[in-house]
Known about the structure:
The chain is an alpha/beta fold. The protein has helices at residues 9-12, 54-68, 77-93, 95-106, 110-138, 171-184, 199-210, 229-234, 248-259, 283-295, 312-326, 337-353, 388-391, 407-415, 430-436, 472-478; strands at residues 3-4, 18-19, 22-24, 27-29, 34-39, 44-50, 150-158, 161-165, 188-192, 218-220, 241-245, 265-268, 273-277, 305-311, 330-331, 355-358, 378-381, 398-404, 419-420, 422-426, 444-447, 462-463, 466-467, 480-488. The chain folds into 2 domains: 9-269 and 465-486, Aldehyde Dehydrogenase, Chain A, domain 1, CATH 3.40.605.10; 273-455, Aldehyde Dehydrogenase, Chain A, domain 2. The chain contains 16 helices and 24 strands. Strand 13 (273-277), helix 10 (283-295) and strand 14 (305-311) form a beta-alpha-beta unit. The longest helix is centred in the first third of the chain and has 29 residues, at 110-138. The model has no long low-confidence stretch (mean pLDDT 95). Bound molecules: nicotinamide-adenine-dinucleotide and (2E,4E)-2-amino-6-oxohexa-2,4-dienoic acid.
Amino acid sequence: MSSPAGQLPEARGARKAVRIRHYTAGRFHTDGEPFPLVDPVDGRTVGQVPEAGAATVDAAVRAAREALSGPWASYGPADRSRVLHRVADGIEARFEEFVAAECSDTGKPRELAASVDIPRGIANFRAYADLSASRSEQSWHTETPDGRGALNYTVHKPLGVVAVVAPWNLPLLLLTWKVAPALAMGNTVVAKPSELTPSTAELLAEVMDEVGLPAGVFNLVHGHGADAAGARLTGHPGVDAIAFTGESRTGRAIMHAAADQLTPVSFELGGKNAGIVFADADLEKAVAGTLRSSFTNSGQVCLCTERVYVERPVFEEFTAALAKGAESVPYGPLASAEHRDKVAGYLAKAAADGTVRAGGDSPVFGDARDGGFWVRPTVLTGLPEDHPAVREEIFGPVVHVAPFDTEEEAVALANAGPYGLAATVWTGDLSRAHRVAPRLDVGIAWVNTWNLRDLRTPFGGVKASGIGREGGHHSLDFFSEPMNVCVKI
Ligand code: NAD
Ligand code: 6OD
């Protein structure tokens, strides 16, 4: 029996009435039509979220524009670094509140929010605080390409008003992953979290307020995406850059809107990530690693493995162990009823056309969780490569396993399809690892591990998985405009 780890709200501690507010020009308010906020563990409404109308989005963008020439303009890199560290301190001081809010919005197990989501929110601020400060010290160097009497130097200017639009799967982690470097480079921000998961963003706005960030530097608006707050924000003429994480389809819509103003975009989009398991791999580690890479956060991580290709001699042994492991892996509910229905649709098609080796349905608890959005960790085999469950992003606890015979075939299978975010390679042969990894059409290839992150490394996808790179200097580059000053001596 698998272990559903999303506890009943009562077991997580008292469920507080959730209060979600916009934060614009340093003021909290709830302008706009409210819509319900639902706990995915049991499907109950726990609060109301105000939908930002055109006037609220406009006020937020105007506040962000005005703040660019306010006190924020006199903050140097070291001042910004100090304030970002204070934001990190502020999250740390309210750690348990952040964990509870993330669990209530997403239904994820407490252990996950407390070990990944919230610590990474803190780490994002600390990493960019340190990196931007050290970069500003290094950038005293000059470039004098002609060597004949001209002094050239580079000034890194903020882009201006940055719109940050984030998804629901890792709400604080992915919002701060963009907000921190944007602020570190001196921009102002209007952030919009997912309509499903606004609570940690609300707490973040409180922290920004508490640490005394000048009014208008960080603004928060809530609401839906298409034809709503998200589209109003990304299509707003006062926005100078858009940093977006979400579905590839949404990225296309945002890019259309951005085209009118030639607004620069940084996109982290969907994935259909492959794992390759060679017969020379440590099979126990490959199974444990794949259980983690396929089922962490109930498969709702853009980096999750949804297709595994296993060298034929160990295919059956690997698949049996994976299916057995899936029966006991801890899991939480999916984000919404709509998402659960989408995943269930793929499972119905897969069950009709292939073999379900584990899971494949929703658990029955006999308690309030039966009102939630649960799907058991699922292992599939026997589907053709062009099957929707093998080709399309499911973004749930579902993995398909298929055999391969040659290294060449494994690379071709992994590279097929429209996405190119991440891949994992499991092998005991170091030469093979170095040979195969660079041939994969992805932004990130992990060898004998998964989701091992150093925040300075380039992060992003190729093909339909994204545009641009985040992480370390890549983010600082996106969120700034390098300007050349040339002085004739
Ligand atoms: P989504 O695209 O539906 O929504 C993401 C955000 O965009 C939300 O805040 C939403 O309100 C907003 N939005 C939706 N339509 C919009 C529009 N037309 N204009 C402006 N804003 C709009 O994505 P989701 O369902 O919240 O998240 C899951 C998806 O995100 C998956 O595809 C997953 O792979 C992807 N994702 C990618 C990464 C990455 O780093 N590559 C990370 C996390 C999630
Ligand atoms: O680890 C990160 O920096 C990152 N951006 C993770 C994204 C996960 C997607 O769901």
